[in-house]
Amino acid sequence: MAAKKAIVLLSGGMDSATCLAIALHEGYVIYTLSFRYGQRHEVELECARRLADRCGARHRVVDIDLRAFGGSALTDDIEVPKERVPDSESLNNQIVEGFSNDDIPITYVPARNTIFLSFALAWAEVLAADDIFIGVNALDYSGYPDCRPEYIDAFQKMADLATKAGVEGRRRIKIHTPLIKMTKAEIVTRGLELRVDYSMTISCYDPTPGGVACGRCDACRLRLKGFSEAGAQDPVPYQQGTGRDAGST
Amino acid sequence: MAAKKAIVLLSGGMDSATCLAIALHEGYVIYTLSFRYGQRHEVELECARRLADRCGARHRVVDIDLRAFGGSALTDDIEVPKERVPDSESLNNQIVEGFSNDDIPITYVPARNTIFLSFALAWAEVLAADDIFIGVNALDYSGYPDCRPEYIDAFQKMADLATKAGVEGRRRIKIHTPLIKMTKAEIVTRGLELRVDYSMTISCYDPTPGGVACGRCDACRLRLKGFSEAGAQDPVPYQQGTGRDAGST
Question: What pTM does this model have?
Answer without folding.
Answer: 0.83
